[in-house]
Amino acid sequence: xxxxxxxxxxxxxxxxxxxxxxxxxxxxxxxxxxxxxxxxxxxxxxxxxxxxxxxxxxxxxxxxxxxxxxxxxxxxxxxxxxxxxxxxxxxxxxxxxxxxxxxxxxxxxxxxxxxxxxxxxxxxxxxxxxxxxxxxxxxxxxxxxxxxxxxxxxxxxxxxxxxxxxxxxxxxxxxxxxxxxxxxxxxxxxxxxxxxxxxxxxxxxxxxxxxxxxxxxxxxxxx
Amino acid sequence: xxxxxxxxxxxxxxxxxxxxxxxxxxxxxxxxxxxxxxxxxxxxxxxxxxxxxxxxxxxxxxxxxxxxxxxxxxxxxxxxxxxxxxxxxxxxxxxxxxxxxxxxxxxxxxxxxxxxxxxxxxxxxxxxxxxxxxxxxxxxxxxxxxxxxxxxxxxxxxxxxxxxxxxxxxxxxxxxxxxxxxxxxxxxxxxxxxxxxxxxxxxxxxxxxxxxxxxxxxxxxxxxxxxxxxxxxxxxxxxxxxxxxxxxxxxxxxxxxxx
Lengths: 223, 259
What we know:
The complex is a heterodimer of chains A (223) and B (259). Chain A has a domain at 21-168: MetI-like (MetI-like fold). Helices cover 79% and strands 0% of the residues of chain A. Chain A has helices spanning 4-46, 49-64, 67-77, 87-112, 117-124, 129-159, 171-182, 185-214. Chain B has a domain at 11-96 and 172-253: P-loop containing nucleotide triphosphate hydrolases (Rossmann fold), CATH 3.40.50.300. Chain B is globular and about 55 Å long. Residues 1-5 and 255-259 of chain B have low confidence and may be disordered. The interface between A and B is medium-sized, with 23 and 32 residues.
């Protein structure tokens, strides 16, 4: 029943090529998105009122507008004001901006759930506000935010398929091209789905490892 | 010099007319006090009298609206953040609910300010932290996290953390009121050792017997003012008719509710 030569000669090479592009989209988007989210989340908690408001607005807009529209804006609208991004760059930028908004929500919530007395204790020892955030609050906030941020990274793996909309042919794009060429949608999309499932499973596994390594008694997940 | 009737020549801490309003309510009403080197003063008074706010105003964790603060005769510029940080390094603070850093071991809690604030190398900070933990009887608990320690142990770590900074004055904000009586005992022992070592202290407490044993002077606060102060034996002399005596006897009877 399985048409192995078709898989080996056509499907896997195409999907592997797409997987390579997908990884190039996902890895920088995940890392920079998380870094941006930590920065944005910190600003939304500790920034001046004006910065906080700006951060809240940014998050509201990025969470409130469909990602496809955001990608279209980056790819089709920016050129009108003289900013040209190729499909790949537009997709990565869009993913970073969007996932930073989501990460910032998890980070913000985590900061707010830390007992405030610790900030007083740090101040009383002579820590500057920045040092208190860096050495006392952030390490705790990141542990609390980790499950949520991990979730967002798993989402990112899946919504990276939207890069196809900016003509960046990644895993989903390769599958679609191949499927319409051979008229064999079922096998090809099932295979592509499995590729994504492997990616998200691998990501979950790594995230769990990180959570376990960062585990501290009394924090988050109870053993 | 630490005899109760002795003299304390060198001024350590001086507050002048500290006032603070919070939410439109006057919490501190021009409070002044002097603390000389090695002197131990105890703040008592009903809940809401302003004891905790006063202690937090001393190192500007709560910024006073008005008033001046002196350490060893030098006035603190309350608007200068750098000066504030340097000042806070010299004034230790112990909180009612410990406020340990939850993500650090006992050793890390004591060592982190040595490293990040005083800039000691890691190894030096650690060996100092080990020493301070031993001083409060917790040498075996260095690798425990706050969630693994009892309340009394947490407070002792907090004391070690403050002591590691070599403070000139220590402020204690009801250090035992979050603890069961049997756990309070181990913390009181540590504080008594500190006092015997000549540490300058300003402490708010509801633990009257302890206050009496420790205090060179009792400051009785009510409605944001120090309304009585003096040597415990005088303030609490039977028949002295002081507000302090009245408060203490009602405390003893449990009439004040929370003790």
